[in-house]
User: Fold TetR/AcrR family transcriptional regulator from Streptomyces cellulosae.
Amino acid sequence: MSRVSQAQALENRRRAVAAASQLFRERGVNGISVADLMKSIGLTTGGFYKQFPSKEALIAEAAQAAFGDLDLLLASFDTDHGDHDTARGALIDYYLSTEHRDQPGPGCPTAGFAGDMAREPTAGEVRETYAAGVRDFASWMSTEATDGLPMVATLVGAILLARATAGTELSEKILESTHKALTAPPGLDPES
Assistant:
């Protein structure tokens, strides 16, 4: 049996974290076993325990990686759209799209990990990572009038409800009406 080089071990760890980050958002942390995760990247369960002390350690690292991906996405919106107000509007368009609704794996970790964070009373390090990611997302969404938390809460709530009702007319209505409410000019009734 050959030993894995240090470089290959680091690459295996990176692949495991990336796969876990996506699969946890897609299926939940209890919806994917260590064996299934490792199989998805072509490695053995024994290889997992050479890299991580526990599944909880992987969850913390996967959540951190997912929020790192979100940071990169937000930075790309700023770069692609020039000014931050336009970038924020484009992010709302993306966030409330059927594409984002239907693909939770590469989607926002704020929504992707929300249920797991709510169900775990002792989430510890993972919860701290999650809270920091939510704060950073809210900061990016902030305007002169608000700190961004209401907008993040609205976006996340809408995408969770749209995913929970996917395949029904209500799912589309949730996306459309939330988009209209968040992009309506100040003082205008979005329902009119």
